[in-house]
């Protein structure tokens, strides 16, 4: 994919040049430290639990993933299509896929850096004497980054669907909540374990795949592939949507 | 260099470009004229491969724009009408990004960035934030971005819109300079601009080519033009009528329009062929008219454009008749 590196670097630089990214970084740090201290206090000093809770082990993490990736990706295609920058990129000698994937990777990198703040808490705790299980924290961070990649790709689909960033953000937030909650709802509704609906919901159950692998500290390639496959599907869809914009004009 | 054959583009029920064909040879500079909404931008977008045509094909340097899109894109420098730039970046960063997109090395991009900024007269603004530049400066940054890859084909959509007259002259001069080495297609709805820069003009109207040729060829279709005469006559209003009749009888005169009096000077517009000036001058001398003005009015591109835009019929046939 020619030009992928160029797009990726530009998007990442663009994120860090926008005030929104810094505001998000600041708010997320505040949010995380609040829940970290709350959990530590309630669990009586369970450091590992507090760290993994912020990396996919608890709802505070998932609430963040509903809102933060859409806010990063909302402008990436919608606003650029309105300002004509998409026209500039799509008439450059780079493929449509490189444009979309570069943007998704930039958002993923930003989120991975955001989640890297959690191991910093661990480092702080280690200085105070307690030793976190770094293997478990590391795989949880990797998992959190993979989930972020999937949700960034979903955010780009939303951004490709509309030329209004706020509408894109709203669509992506709804999609994220549905993606995470539907299987939870499904497993509650599921009557017989062999039903088709149950089987289908199982195939998109982000939470189950996440908990089965990354939280236990055991890296299972099947679960990594699960996230990569859904990411690719979403990316494919947004590339198609970008292409369809050419046809619609 | 550019071959467009039977190009059409439909947006829903609206036919924006209707069966357009033309060729541009290497090194040719062609002006793309037309009222707003004539299909200029749509055609240009199809040339760059951004919009796929509904029918017809575009070849650039012998390569089909859709089938070998990436190769074609690397040969084209395109400045869209909206002048897309990342406002949060500095001028230099935008140019280096363009270099990376085109697969140039960093050193080469830097060298070219310096050269193109020099060319558009923004060498001292390389470190400025694009968002802080004036509209005219941004327009020139856009031009620099399009020029950076040193493309064989330049497609400029309204490169002078929003510029002040001085900047317009600069951009015009720049396009003239560039045209020595490249094939350039430049659109505008401002006529003097196209007149100054482009030897050949294609006029689009309602998605179709209404005229295509060198300026001289196109103007020839409007006939020879007219002679404007303003003179103080003897005998008041009756004199004006007599003068009109005398003018109409001169050899080569086809018709005479009396435009009425101004400050005591009667004004006429004399249409015809041959050396009208000498004939009218001799008549004035013989009748003792005091001439204030005697000047030939050449047909302008503006008149041709107005005829086409106002649907005053096909000019080419009329010119031939």
Q: Describe it for me?
A:
The complex is a heterodimer of chains A (249) and B (321). Chain A contains twelve helices and no strands. Chain A is mainly α. Chain A has one domain (4-248). The two termini of chain A are 25 Å apart. The model of chain A has no long low-confidence stretch (mean pLDDT 89). Chain B is an alpha/beta fold and 321 residues long. Chain B is 37% helix and 30% strand. Chain B has twelve helices and 14 strands. Chain B has helices spanning 40-47, 69-73, 91-101, 106-120, 135-147, 165-178, 191-197, 215-220, 236-248, 276-287, 301-309, 315-320; strands spanning 2-11, 14-24, 29-33, 55-60, 63-64, 76-79, 153-157, 183-188, 200-205, 208-214, 226-232, 253-262, 265-272, 290-297. In chain B, the strands form three sheets. A six-stranded mixed beta sheet of chain B has the order 6-7-8-3-9-10, sandwiched between helices. Chain B has a four-stranded antiparallel beta sheet with strand order 2-1-4-5. In chain B, strands 12-13-11-14 form a four-stranded antiparallel beta sheet, with helices on one face. In chain B, a hairpin with a 2-residue loop joins strand 9 (200-205) and strand 10 (208-214). In chain B, helix 3 crosses helix 4 and helix 4 packs across helix 5. Residues 314-321 of chain B have low confidence and may be disordered. Chain A binds chain B through residues 2-3, 5-7, 9-10, 13-14, 17-18, 83-85, 87-95, 246-247, 249, and chain B through 9, 11, 42, 45, 48-52, 70-71, 73-74, 76, 78, 80-86, 88-89, 93, 97-98, 100-103.
């Amino acid at each position: 994919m020619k030009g992928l590196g160029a797009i990726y670097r530009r998007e990442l630089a663009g994120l860090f040049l926008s005030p929104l990214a810094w505001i998000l970084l600041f708010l997320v740090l505040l949010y995380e430290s609040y829940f970290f201290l709350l959990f530590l206090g309630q669990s009586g000093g369970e450091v590992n639990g507090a760290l993994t809770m912020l990396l996919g082990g608890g709802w505070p993490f998932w609430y963040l993933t509903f809102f933060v990736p859409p806010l990063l990706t909302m402008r990436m295609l919608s606003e650029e299509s309105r300002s004509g920058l998409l026209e500039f990129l799509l008439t450059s000698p780079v493929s449509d896929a490189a444009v979309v994937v570069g943007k998704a990777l930039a958002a993923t990198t930003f989120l991975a850096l955001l989640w890297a703040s959690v191991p910093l808490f661990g480092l702080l705790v280690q200085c105070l004497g307690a030793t976190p299980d770094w293997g478990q924290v590391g795989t949880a961070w990797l998992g959190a980054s993979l989930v972020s990649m999937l949700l960034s790709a979903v955010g780009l689909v939303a951004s490709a669907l509309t030329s209004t960033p706020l509408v894109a953000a709203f669509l992506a937030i709804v999609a994220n909540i549905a993606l995470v909650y539907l299987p939870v709802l499904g497993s509650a509704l599921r009557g017989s374990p062999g039903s088709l609906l149950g089987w289908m919901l199982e195939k998109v159950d982000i939470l189950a795949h996440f908990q089965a692998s990354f939280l236990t500290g055991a890296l299972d390639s099947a679960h990594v592939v699960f996230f990569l496959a859904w990411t690719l599907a979403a990316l494919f869809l947004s590339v198609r949507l970008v292409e369809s914009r050419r046809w619609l004009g | 260099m550019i071959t467009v054959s039977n190009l059409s583009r439909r947006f829903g029920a609206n036919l924006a470009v209707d069966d357009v064909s033309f060729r541009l040879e290497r090194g040719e500079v062609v002006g793309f004229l037309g009222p707003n909404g004539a299909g200029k931008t749509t055609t240009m977008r199809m040339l760059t491969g951004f919009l796929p045509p509904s029918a017809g094909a575009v070849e650039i340097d012998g390569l089909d724009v859709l089938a070998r899109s990436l190769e074609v894109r690397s040969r084209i420098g395109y400045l869209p009408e909206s002048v897309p730039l990342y406002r949060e970046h500095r001028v230099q960063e935008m140019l280096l990004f363009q270099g990376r997109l085109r697969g140039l090395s960093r050193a080469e991009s830097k060298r070219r960035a310096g050269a193109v900024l020099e060319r558009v007269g923004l060498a001292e603004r390389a470190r400025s934030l694009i968002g802080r530049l004036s509209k005219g400066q941004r327009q020139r940054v856009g031009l620099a971005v399009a020029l950076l890859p040193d493309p064989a084909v330049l497609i400029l959509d309204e490169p002078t819109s929003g510029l002040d007259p001085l900047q317009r002259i600069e951009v015009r001069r720049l396009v003239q300079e560039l045209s020595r080495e490249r094939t350039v297609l430049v659109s505008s709805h401002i006529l003097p601009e196209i007149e100054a820069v482009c030897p050949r003009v294609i006029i689009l109207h309602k998605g179709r080519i209404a005229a295509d040729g060198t300026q001289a060829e196109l103007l020839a279709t409007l006939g020879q033009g007219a002679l404007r005469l303003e003179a103080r006559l003897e005998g008041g209003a009756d004199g004006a009528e007599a003068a009109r009749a005398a003018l109409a009888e001169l050899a080569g005169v086809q018709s005479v329009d009396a435009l009425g009096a101004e400050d005591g000077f009667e004004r006429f517009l004399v249409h015809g062929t041959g050396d009208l000036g000498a004939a009218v001058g001799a008549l004035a001398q013989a009748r003792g008219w005091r001439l204030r003005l005697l000047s030939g009015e050449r047909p302008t591109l503006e008149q041709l454009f107005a005829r086409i835009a106002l649907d005053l019929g096909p000019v080419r046939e009329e010119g031939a008749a």
